[in-house]
Amino acid sequence: MNEELFSGKADLYDKYRPSYPSELADWLCIKTRAQSVADIGAGTGKFTKCLLNKPWKITAVEPNRDMIVRLQRNIPEVKAVEAPAEKTGLPDSSIDLVTAATAFHWFDEEKFKEECKRILTPNGRVAIIFNGKIVDDTVKARDEISRIYCGYKGHAGKSSQEDGDRFLREEYFSEVEYVEFEHSISLDEDGFVGNTLSRSYALKPDDVGYEGYVWELRELFKKCNDFGSVELRFKATCYLGRF
Question: Could you report the per-residue pLDDT of 34-54, keeping only the tens digit for each?
Answer without folding.
Answer: 999 999 999 999 999 999 999
